[in-house]
Amino acid sequence: MRACWREERIDFDGAHYKSVAMAMEPKSPQGEGLPIWVGGNTPPAFRRCGKYGDGWLASRVTDAEFAERSMDAIREAAVKAGRDPDAIGWQSMIAPPPRPGDEAGKTFYAEPDRVAARAADLKEMGFEYVTLNATAIFQSGARGVEPMLERLHSLHERLRAEVG
After folding, report:
1. Cα–Cα distance between 122 and 144 in angstroms, integer?
2. What is the set of domains in the chain, with CATH numbers?
3. Which of 58, 76, 77, 154 is most buried as measured by Cβ atoms within 10 A of its Cβ?
4. Residue 164 and residue 146: Cα distance in Å, rounded?
5. How far apart are CA 87 and CA 59, in angstroms?
6. 3-state secondary structure string, the chain?
7. What is the CA radius of gyration of the chain?
8. Nearest 5°: CA angle at 89, between 45 and 77?
């Protein structure tokens, strides 16, 4: 990916993929320095994050033990790849869209106290950044662009004030 951001055209002949004169336009203004954040909650995703990623995009983090184990696996993969594990960033979605039948999940983003408490929990687990999920905000009752923008703004203000 970084070669695509840096070079006009690239040729690649790997074990699983081959490309000839591949190009990507427009190029990022950040060039090859564009950060790569890797998502996933499985051992292969943790290895990819440690080997290639600038950060981990976590989702459905169930508890502090899971977060710690996951972060440790990513750090271990970074060291194994000769990378600085302290250079990896940590970000988690506060709450993903609810699964079918999850009635409490459908109202989560309509309850600022729950959102702020979850963000504080994630910060305590070691996450530096959190993301809000627009689909889940829509499902919580913000049924249009203006209501979604209003909800995002109010949640952003609340999180900045309480969590940083």
Report:
1. 28
2. 1-30 (no CATH), 31-162 (3.20.20.30)
3. 58
4. 25
5. 20
6. CHHHHHCCCEEEECCCCEEEEECCCCCCCCHHHCCCEEECCCHHHHHHHHHHCCEEEECCCCCHHHHHHHHHHHHHHHHHCCCCHHHCEEEEECCCCCCCCCHHHHCHHHCHHHHHHHHHHHHHCCCCEEECCHHHHHHCCCCCHHHHHHHHHHHHHHHHHHCC
7. 19
8. 40
Looking at residue 51, its amino acid is K
Write out the two tokens for 38.
């890797």
Neighbours of 122 (CB within 10 A): 23
Q: Is the pLDDT of residue 146 over 90?
A: yes
CB 24 within 8 A of CB 4: yes
pLDDT tens per residue across span 41-56: 999 999 999 999 999 9
Report which residue type is found at 132. L
Q: Percent of the chain scored above 90 by pLDDT? A: 75
Strand partners, 39: 57
Burial (CB count within 10 angstroms: exposed 0-12, middle 13-18, buried 19+), residue 112: middle
